[in-house]
């Protein structure tokens, strides 16, 4: 009797969870399919019209800036002694631009990072800024220190910067990045370049898989989703790296408080792009090659290679965008803007649907095992045939799209891992959503934010992608 009751419970649970998950997958799949359709139509139209009349732009043939100016690179750093030195040396050796300055923000209670910055070389293009509070604060708080240092330098040197470029301490800055920013920032208030994660090597197969799952996610997001946002007129969110903001726009956002970055935000980069759009500024996502036949001008960096670190990072994204972002930014804007914000904030519901799907599989397995033991017929999971067929078609399409973008960016070896990377991404998304709820509850109770950072690795092979 006990076995029959358990079999009934697990059978009913499997049926109900499967129905909930199937409907959720269908709704989310349709949302993604609309974005895919817009991207395909736009790509086909540009191939048949624009690119038949004009060659594709690259960094080598971009129009030179009408008003060349000095560009600042902001790098906030908290306990980054393992990577900041390599980042600075690589930037000094590779960047092709006549006038730039690198501002590195450090904390007085972080002597390791301060020493690493000083050891990277005595170069006038590197400006060490030590804040007036012990760390960690939020990343935005550190960025505001750098902004005030820039204002001081402008006053002392009787000059004015043209743009500020955001980067992290583990980034490889492409040699032509500042040239692209310098040319385009005259027409736009925000210029975002693609981000191409580099899979971490030397930390075992599991580490390569964890860091590698970011590759396909960013390859698709920065080749399709951001492109669609811009095409529809929605605000272009900043990725926090490889992003240039016009100095005048930052000055408008800073206001009398001299703080363009919101220290109460966990995702100050994402919100910055939306605030620029709300202020009437124009953002653009730029995907160009260094020259014909050469690699994409993009930011390359290693993402977390441990499960805990990946959960930590993505939980911060979910909290800042899907939970706190809802409170802070609301639903302002037109139809396209509201749709994109809904798309950004659906991660929590998507995680719940994934839990239901995996839970249905687990419950079905238990029910099937009990049915085999007791000899009773288990409860059938009778989903409508059209619903099963639609979800299967969407799944095949989704894997195919991710595989295609990964193939273009990283080659066939990485593309063959797409199904496994997507499975790992699902597990990380579920764990991140659970942690995000805890972070948000703590934020509501205590109202205090801190830099919830992860350890970083500097890429030993900066161009492990094929683009």
Features:
single chain; 467 residues; globular; disordered C terminus
Helix-strand blueprint:
Blueprint: H1 2-48, H2 50-53, E1 71-76, H3 84-94, E2 100-106, H4 111-119, E3 126-130, H5 139-157, E4 163-166, H6 177-184, E5 190-192, E6 195-198, H7 204-232, E7 243-246, H8 247-254, H9 268-278, E8 283-285, E9 299-302, H10 307-329, H11 335-345, H12 347-374, H13 385-410, H14 412-416, H15 418-446
Parallel strand pairs: 1-2, 1-4, 2-3, 5-8, 6-9
Antiparallel strand pairs: 4-7, 5-7
Helix pairs in contact: 1-7, 1-12, 1-13, 7-13, 7-15, 9-10, 10-15, 12-15
Description:
- This protein has 467 residues and is of the alpha/beta class.
- The protein has a domain of 233 residues: Spore Coat Polysaccharide Biosynthesis Protein SpsA, Chain A, CATH 3.90.550.10.
- It is built from 15 helices and 9 strands.
- A 7-stranded mixed β-sheet has the order 3-2-1-4-7-5-8, with helices on both faces. A two-stranded parallel ribbon has the order 6-9.
- The longest helix has 47 residues.
- The protein is globular and about 85 Å long.
CATH superfamily of the domain at 71-303: Spore Coat Polysaccharide Biosynthesis Protein SpsA, Chain A
The largest pleated sheet is described as: 7 strands, mixed
Stretches where pLDDT falls below 50 for ≥5 residues? 461-466
Shape by Cα distribution = globular
CATH architecture of the domain at 71-303: Alpha-Beta Complex
Rounded to an integer in angstroms, the radius of gyration calculated over CA atoms is 24 Å
Q: Distance between termini?
A: 62 Å
Helix content: 55-70%
Structural class: alpha/beta
What's the CATH topology label of the domain at 71-303?
Answer: Spore Coat Polysaccharide Biosynthesis Protein SpsA, Chain A
Strand residue percentage: 5-15%
Rounded mean pLDDT is 90
Query: Can you list the strand order of the major beta sheet?
Result: 3-2-1-4-7-5-8
Question: How many strand elements?
Answer: 9
Helix segment count?
15
Instruction: Write the element-wise H/E pattern from the N-terminal end onward.
Output: HHEHEHEHEHEEHEHHEEHHHHHH
